[in-house]
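[Target chain]
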Amino acid sequence: MTVTHETRVSVDRRARPVDLPALLDRYQYPEAVRQIIADEQLLPIELLNRLQALYPAESGLTESEPLFFEPGRRYAGVSGFREVVAVLARHGVELGHLAERELFIEVYRFMATSHVLNAINWRAFAGDSLFQLTFPQPGMMPADVTAAYLGATTPDQRAAIVAAYHARTNPHDGKQLLNRPWIDLDDGSREVIVGSQHKYPQCQLIFDRTTQNCLAFCTYCFRHAQVRQDEDMFVQDDVAQVHRYLRVHPEVTDILITGGDASDPVGSVVVPRADDPYRIAGVVLPS
């Protein structure tokens, strides 16, 4: 077998054991988190070494170079993208195609946290899967729109091109705007259940406000209104309204809380209450 430089690097990485304290230092884990990891044995060194041996080029467990992005930061929109570009430039990384990437961001969205950005291999970013997933790539926008945007000479011209193409996109797939569940009230009126869908008898879909953000926005995400936070985005703010709807729809057996990454307030939808007779999927709903 011919041993290339790339092969030697891979072999070296496989042979290198994981230094857990150095790994936690690199990602600047606070002391409280380190204590939890130690007490609950969340990162057993045997497992880390096995992952490193199996995936030496992807694991990142033995990386020692300083991180580019300060932990805890969130970069959003065109301004956030430009901040990212500036940080990368200071480290000698040039993305290229900046205007074309900004066109995509203006029409759709860009958001990435430092957690995701620091996981990208910036030495070979063009082929990095996280970079491909979260950064707009050349060719994603129609060629005629891109050409017009690149040829625009003023901010107003670029804004008009963005607005025109924005109007052609469909932020609500599956006729979501037409599918709004409601409750028939005693006075004959209807109470529309905001931020919810009920397409299938047994399943209630909820766009809870606490789940409409992610660690990064994927460029293929079809929920344009959600990630752009448009005025017509689906957002459920009133959990009590959902509970009222479920009480008159006993056919519902499952609640699907959709969006991005959940946070603690999601529990308000399904917090157990022993004195409530209504149960859904084995969970007692609060009154």
Q: What stands out?
A: DSSP finds 13 helices and nine strands in the chain.
